[in-house]
Predict the structure.
Amino acid sequence: MHESIAKAQLKGQVRLAQSQSKEILDHMQNQHLPKPLLSNKKGINKYIKAFTDMAANSIIKEKHHIKRSSWHYKYQLIHFQDTPSNIPGYGSYNSIIMYSFDTRKLINIKKMEQGHVHTIVNIFCHEHFFIRCIQRINALNIGDVGKKIYPIIEWLIQNNIPMKHIPEDAYFVCEDCVFVALRLPNSQGLLFKTILMKDQMTDKQNRLFTENKNLSAGSEVFAYLVNEEASILRTIPKENNDAFAIDSKPSNWLLHLEYGSTVENEQNTK
């Protein structure tokens, strides 16, 4: 696929995501949300579904934990922010957002704020990264791109990997490709820049990224974290299929927002 076609696809997906978000937010405001809605099971399900619908084309991961003795459940939604932002000197990127819902707390007016936790993940994907993934792995939308790197996201957050342990130029060597990322200065996070396919690498890239680093389909390892000298620094396992592999404990990679605040407002303060 030509780069211009991939760029056009990406822009179309971003416009669609923004349009969907605006339409649903307008509808929610017209319904006088959230408090009147959060008084019963039907209202709470409608409230949570609105967030899922807004993120339809940018969903990276959804996880449910249903309580055995009642209708209550916990739900986690991880997706890309629909509006790209800009890091001076680095260009356009999309943030990763995580919503965590607990229906038992949402229905309790005193615990409502604890029932909807809104988190920014300090892991970002550059516009160029999306374009190359659309070209090289036939990603249908930006959510598909996120699914490809989800085990890395999960590993960084759940193990609270110190940012200083990630090399400035980081390479995640997988079975058939290498994800190239940049550790941002001042502990701002990790920016995914591009993807290299193993069957299209130069001889130099092959020596760096494939010799003694081959992963089989049946391996429990998802990727190796490698530096510019081709040294293996960490081994990253495949996705944890437990109900909530990413929990709410403190992590270098998570920035919790106040109830009712927005990603845009928080980023404007940086």
